[in-house]
Write the structure tokens for this entry.
Amino acid sequence: MKFLDNKYDLVILLGVIPSIDEPVLLQELQESSAKVVHMTPFEDAALKCELLCRYEAGSEEGVVAILSKTLCMNLPLEFEDYFESLDEGYLSAETNIGEDEFEEILEMYEEAKSAVLIIAEDVLYHDRSKNINKFLKILKEFTKLEVISLSSHDFESSLSVPQEVEDLKSFDGTVVLQYKSKDNLEKLIGSKQFSVAAKSQNNQKVNVYIEDKVEERIFEVDEKLKGTIALMPVKDENLSYRYKVAKITKREVQ
């Protein structure tokens, strides 16, 4: 399946990690002349982009709210009133994407003849997915963006004024990214920075506690990774938001 087919001058990725989610998309992006904006909690080392906007895990609602306010023009009055009252300064601080970064996105958007916004599947399983869907519908209706999802799950809703953006759910502590894979199911893979935060050493046996479950893993430091989110491959597809707060402890050798 082709995603771009050389149709776009600008590609905005929201939550998508091409090397994990869609290798075909990664190859298309590598071969494309389109400018790429990567909005993500987790940097994809395999992806080259014009602008990396690394936002806080769980803050997608705030991200799409500011993106909508930035790009949407000629809105009906009730939508104008909503976005006029939106505190983008506060949301920018909460999401960790600066207002100057949204200005860069706007500049690239205005220069582009055609543009697409590609949404990661797990964003549509976010606790605030209904409101996120409302912003996506607004972006689809009032910008030149084509809005598509990597999921077969329908992201559209009726065109209506969104609810107020909720305060960001806390992702304090160590965070892991779960994704379906056939490989490295025994491992937890993180950067040196994550190693320090989790107080874990390379090749150390650890217990990973997520909510009421615990898994045994071997922690591996990957020099190519950046940031404080670790990769946690899982065998079965998990239809939920894939970033999880986790407690990492050293496993006692029996």
Summary: The longest helix spans residues 129-142. The radius of gyration is 19 Å.
